[in-house]
Structures are given as structure tokens and as C-alpha cells.
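Dear Dr. L.,

I hope this message finds you well. Following up on our conversation about the binding site, I have prepared a predicted three-dimensional model of the protein together with adenosine-5'-triphosphate. For your records, I am including the exact sequence and ligand specification that went into the calculation, followed by the C-alpha cells. Please feel free to forward this to your student if that is useful.
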Amino acid sequence: MSQIELRKVSKRWGEVTAVEPLDLTIGDGEFVAILGPSGCGKSTMLFMLAGIYTPSDGEILFDGAVINDVEARDRNVGIVFQSYALYPHMTVRDNILFPLRFKDLPKEEALRRAHAAAGLVRVEELLERKPAQMSGGQQQRVALARALVKEPQLLLLDEPLSNLDASLRTTMRHEIRGLQRKLGVTTILVTHDQIEATTMADRVICMSKGRIEQIGTADDLYHRPDSLFVAGFIGSPPINLLNAEASGGTLHCGEASLRVAGGGDGKRVLGVRPEAVALGSGRFQGAIHDLEPHGRETIYHLSSPLGPVRALEAGAAARFKVGDNVAFGLTSTLLFDAGTTRRIAEARVEAGA
Ligand SMILES: Nc1ncnc2c1ncn2[C@@H]1O[C@H](COP(=O)(O)OP(=O)(O)OP(=O)(O)O)[C@@H](O)[C@H]1O
Ligand SMILES: [Mg+2]
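The resulting structure of the complex is given below.
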């Protein structure tokens, strides 16, 4: 177990900057997720921590000691890749034993540890099998056992569940989370799946284009996104982002005018989560031009004076139909500066719920 610190760490390849200089501290025993779209630098971050890539600049510290020059195999880091990367010609037992090959352990002790790791992820019955003789979920468990066998200070998981089907993914999410709690190992999960990130991790690091956009809990990212990027990336169905302009306490949004306090003057974006569009009463009027029944909720698409708006309503049966005109209000809103893309935390919009 370890506290991890990155100080002004960056990674470039020639002209390509994969990770801009960034600072980050991860507490001992903490479970964090790095969340962001493809190419934003997630794997590069992990590979620098694992010692597979050397940072272009900055320092990486484990428990206060700089480890930039420590080789991957001496770092005591366990890593699980998306592709499992098990050795196909080796049995499960030998795959799990593999990371111990450089450790000066008596054979008995190495076997004891391998069996213990197999037990943790419930593959003790499969020790004689080869990877090809197992399901994807079983292979992923073996990959996890192999990462845990060294009793690592730091566990790195790079999209470990993305090759599994949806129901197995849910099971493995809980299993990995439970295992991490039990072992107390500092863990970093890389994913582009927001559900995976927010359900498994204590804190989520949201990245875009090699930069940290925001670090926070699921609640922070959803309800208090720092930027338009985070607001748009988190949440499904996505947040409504409506172009607006603020001047002298009035927010002009489409053909509507709303009173706003603390919103300044200039181009703005009004953010409204779909569930904050309350249908049935309110100061706006919208026409439903499409609806999506989802069983336990319905998503309505409206044209309105504010612009096109998506509304989400809980409940099995749709209350409205295509063509209906409905009154609606906004129960909560977020306001962003369209230029800087940052949220204006002090803005209060009167949206007439
Ligand atoms: N060895 C390399 N040489 C040059 N550029 C690289 C190299 N590895 C990664 N990059 C670039 O660095 C950026 C970040 O890549 P990285 O693999 O960290 O992204 P990622 O967030 O893990 O994406 P994904 O979700 O697709 O796995 C990308 O623009 C990528 O093309
Ligand atoms: Mg990656």
C-alpha cells in the first residue's frame, strides 16, 4: 500500500503531448478512476506509474520517494490490461506465478501466494487450465490474480472489464471493488465508462486532451461540473446545453428571457440535466416531437422557446404523446461561460419550475 504523488508529470512523443504537466496525489488505500475519452492520456498515465514509460518531465513519488528511475519490475506494481495478456502456453498456475520469477522466494512460498491469489478471485479450480480453456471472465480473474500475487503497493487496472458482456461486467465491478476494500491496496482504474468509474472509485479524475478537467466524487462531477466538458461527458441521457447571452441581469436563451443573478455579461451556455426539466407546469411551453420509452423512464424531445430540450421523466408509462404541447419549468440549472467553458458557480438563474 502506498501514497502516490505526481509532480508536474508530463509525457510527450515528439510533437504529440499525451499528458500535459499535472499534479496529483492519491491517498494510501484509495481507489481512484481515471475517466476520459479515447486518446486523452489515460493509459499513458498508468504506464508511467508502472514504469513502462518514463515521464518527459516531473517526478513520480511512492510514499514520498522519487521512483522515476526505478525499473518496472522493481516497482511492486500490479497491472491488469484490457486484453488480459495471459501467456497462452502456460497454465493458470504458471501465469499467476510469473510475476514472482524475479523474487527470491522459496518455491513453497511462491506456490502458497499463487494459490492465495487464485482464491481471492475464485479461480482455484482452474489452476491446471490454459487460457484458451476459459471464459473471458475467468481469464480476467486470472489476470487479476497475477496482478495481486506480488502483493503490490499499487494496483493499476487499464479498462479491465471492457471485453466482458454487460452482466459479467456488473458482477466483476462489485468483485473488484470488494477485493480492493478487503486488501486496502491503492488502486487506479482507467476507463472511458462513466458508470464503471463512478460506481467503483472513491474519486474520479476526469481527463480530456492530456489535462485533468476535474477531480471529484460522482456527485461533484454530476451536480457541480467545473467545465462544459465534464458536464457533457458525465450523465446519460446527456445534459441539455443551450446557447445563451447574459446582459444586465437577463439571460437571453433562444426566444426566452430569464432573470439571472451573478451571471456577468457575455456569451453563456445554460446547462439543464434532463431530469431537471419538469413537465406538466411551469413558465415555458414546449411541443413534444419525439419520445423514447425506456421501461422505467421516458425521455421526451421538445422544441421550446429555449431551444431543443430533452426531458427525462421517471415512471413506466409515458404521460404525454408526440404532438402534445406541455408546460414545463426547470428545477435546477448550471451556467457556463461560453468562452472559458468554466462553470459560473455563483450564477443563479430564475427558471420558473
Ligand atoms: N508510443 C506512442 N507514440 C506516440 N504517441 C503515442 C504513443 N502512445 C500514445 N500516444 C498518443 O498519446 C495520446 C494518449 O494516448 P493514450 O493511449 O494514453 O490514450 P487513452 O486515454 O488510454 O485512450 P484509449 O481510451 O483509446 O485507450 C494519444 O494521442 C496517442 O495517440
Ligand atoms: Mg488506453
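In brief: The chain has two domains: 4-229, 237-350.

With kind regards,
A. P.
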